[in-house]
Amino acid sequence: MFPAQTYQQRRHDLAALIPSGLIFLPGNREAPMNCADNTYPFRQDSSFRYFAGHNIPDLALTIDGASGESKLWGDDISLDHVVWMGAQPSIAELAERIGATRGGTQAELSTLLKKHAKEVRFLPPYRAERKTFIAEHLGSAAGADEGLIRAVIALRSVKSAEELVQMDLAVMTSMKMHAAARAHAAPGQLEAEVAGIIEGIAISADGRLSYPAIVTRNGHVLHNHYHGNTLQKGDLLLIDAGAETPSGYAGDITRTFAVGADMTTQQQDIYDIVQKALTDSTAALQPGITYQSVHLNAGRIIASGLKEVGLMKGDVDEAVAAGAHALFMPHGLGHMIGLDVHDMEDLGEDLVGYDDKVKRSTQFGTRSLRLGKELQEGYALTVEPGIYFIPALIDRWAADGTCADFINFAALDAYRNFGGIRLEDNVVVTASGHRVLG
């Protein structure tokens, strides 16, 4: 946790943006796997943690918009719980650690919320039990407050020096995970063996994975969490894995390498194109540039490189305008990162990644770009270009003649079993440009 003054300042800044009403920020509850006492690993709500710090279940924070008064709510544990859990800090002690006061019990909070239901402002609920709680206490017609959503996004988007220290730690641990995976991966192993090493390093750093790791020889499957394949010599192994620090900040790093061998000429050619897209896209980052423009330029780099190896043809700018490059990179170049690996997307992806000046594209590929708006100093984001050869997508485009003026479909037969390559770093925008985290 940060010092109490950090959380006090964050809440002060939020109240300044929302000067009326009762701001209600509930923490998460334990989620049972199969019975109440056997739960999934606890993960705190990130907005609650941003303003209240604690990674403890069954807490809630209220902030009076007019006065700025902050109260922490929850039940002190009983002696029965002490037997199983040991002594725990009281709610009053937890409140003091973040510069707030104790509000009362969960029952008293329920009474307060029902009494002031029309004044309560809250963020979009994403868990079923929270949706039920909101409906029971504030009414089934109650909706999340857009003003509060925008205020929280504005505050959480700009990372402080304290936060960047934590994000550097997350990336450094993530890089250790990747280095160990590369050193260990060998022909004859299951992908699961490599995945286990990765997760073990995250845990040994007193953290966890920031998302389920992708460790796959089938890199063309973008979110592939199956780890049951046996590695073969020369396979391209794509690993997309990040660590979460004890303070909750995420890393998100991707590397691709050949297992137990040097890359073939074919593999190296594609790798070099992706590396150039990563290097040039990162170099372009600075305040004032839109990330949508960086994404489209990455598309031009990919199209140009694929044209050189004979897989694309025609004018590169026209090809990207037509979306032809999306056959090979059907995802966005990156997203915000912070307390969430896809930072704040529970608040609304378009509200986080776009604004009145930059709207989300409707074109295949570019429409999957999570962050398109103008970058500001303090924004932390991922840069993750990739090239994938997805047989089903290639076959559909070939059959339909999609972008046939720009794609050499016949030449793609030699790449049907290629898989995919993605490379990813985490970057913060600085006053003078950018810095790669870690």
UniProtKB/TrEMBL annotation:
The keyword Transcription regulation is annotated on this UniProt entry: no
Pfam families: AMP_N, Peptidase_M24
InterPro entries: Aminopep_P_N (IPR007865), Creatin/AminoP/Spt16_N (IPR029149), Creatinase/aminopeptidase-like (IPR036005), Pept_M24 (IPR000994), Peptidase_M24B_aminopep-P_CS (IPR001131), X-Pro_dipept-like (IPR052433)
One of the protein's GO biological processes: proteolysis
Molecular-function GO terms, alphabetical: manganese ion binding; metalloaminopeptidase activity
Reactions the enzyme catalyzes: Release of any N-terminal amino acid, including proline, that is linked to proline, even from a dipeptide or tripeptide
Stretches assigned to the Aminopeptidase P N-terminal domain: 2-131
Record PANTHER family: XAA-PRO AMINOPEPTIDASE 3 (PTHR43226:SF4)
The protein, known as: Xaa-Pro aminopeptidase
Organism of provenance: Neolewinella aurantiaca
